[in-house]
Amino acid sequence: MMPWLQNLTVASVTVGFLAVGPALARAQSLTPQEERIAAWVDANADEAEELIRELVAINSGTLNLDGVRQVGDVLRAEFDALGMETEWSDQSAVGRAGHLIARQEGDRGRRVLLIGHLDTVFEADDPFQELEELGDGWLKGPGIEDMKAGDVVALYALMALRDAGLLDGAQVQVVFTGDEEKPGSPLDIARRDLIEAGRWADVALGFEAGIRDDEAEWATIARRGYADWRLTVSGRQAHSSQVFSDEVGAGAIFETARILSDFYDEVRGEEYLTFNAGAILGGTEVHFDFEEARGTVFGKTNVVPNQAIVHGGIRTISAEQLARAQDAMRAVVARHLPHVMAFIEFGEGYPGMAPTDGNRALQQLLSQINQDLGREPMPALDPSRRGAADISFVAPYADGLAGLGPYGRAGHSPDEALDPTSISIAIKRAAILIWRLSNSEPIT
């Protein structure tokens, strides 16, 4: 836990966190300043929704570089109007549009980093392009949940603070990446700006969609990381009448099946570890484009296949868990059958965001804010329920919370939708959280 979280002063009321065991904030109500924040948000929630609609109307699939820049231009103008120093970090060196960065230098409280992304998974040729009002009051549209609504929540939280006269002096930085859904490579270039901001920050707040269900509204204190893996298997091509013989062996496809089965039996089982085989091709002629995630294959039933390729992904909670899983997978691959060879490699990926004591303390602060707003406590979400996100790149340097955006459903699908009634509560929670963090006593 970062030292400042052990004694966080909020509007002259000290919120103490236990050094051992669950951190519990003492009950309190909204201060007059926070009441003003909440009133402004209620009065401007419709305006925030209109900005979300405007952004959703702009296609910003990761590879639509002009569209990503256009979304960045719209939001940059808003941050400029707040008086923040803005910058567009060009990412043409990694084949991507760029990142939007906004900064405000200050002299009080915690250094707070707000994280979002401008791109979506829906490219310019995707059939899902239009925003639609659904009968249940929800809004359906490409990228509305992941994560244009969250970007607007982060922006409007700062606007609410500005209106209440509480933004001056706060130390705030915003990084909205342009390639979260399909990052440029190498990652040390593509995520350099974000990592530098994480090194600067005390607290990182991620604004992807929140999660709620029949049990609770959840606080995200951990996310699993992601990396891809590629398995290549080669065998001895021969007439199928000789398969399993001492001279020919089992061929590439049987060896691939053996490896995947052993992954399931021997590597699977550790908490938070999952791995998936997303595509598999095998035969006598195999071509697979890993960038496009598509390929072709030719093979005959009377020929022992000599090639197989599997493209998969692995999710872990920490670098240590990833290393253990990779070692176990390599061991399975190494004990190949006769007359076949197999090789596995792991690509660049997103790190994990572990559930640290500092993150748990932030969760308690967020939960207290939710209760101060007349809602229920917010327990910590099971990390297995969330995928990878940009906030994980700064997790080694700053305490963090993710999932601070409004509530939605069916992200990454043609049914992606947003509950517009959740926009105002998400803005209120974020604004009051930033205020309490930026109004805390300096580290002594």
Describe this structure in words.
This protein has helices at about 30-55, 65-80, 145-165, 185-190, 190-200, 250-265, 320-335, 355-370, 425-440, and strands at about 5-10, 15, 85-90, 100-105, 110-115, 130-135, 140, 170-175, 205, 210, 215-220, 225-235, 240, 275-285, 285-290, 295-300, 305, 305-315, 340-350, 400, 405-410, 415-420. With about 450 residues, it is an alpha+beta fold. The chain folds into two domains: about 5-225 and about 355-440, Aminopeptidase, CATH 3.40.630; about 225-350, Alpha-Beta Plaits, CATH 3.30.70.360. The strands form six sheets. Strands 3-4-8-5-9-20 form a six-stranded mixed beta sheet, sandwiched between helices. A six-stranded mixed beta sheet has the order 6-7-22-21-10-11. Strands 14-18-12-19 form a four-stranded antiparallel beta sheet. β15 (about 285-290) and β16 (about 295-300) form a beta hairpin. α3 (about 145-165) packs across α9. The longest helix has 25 residues, at about 30-55.
Summarize the structure.
The protein is α+β, with helices and mostly antiparallel strands.
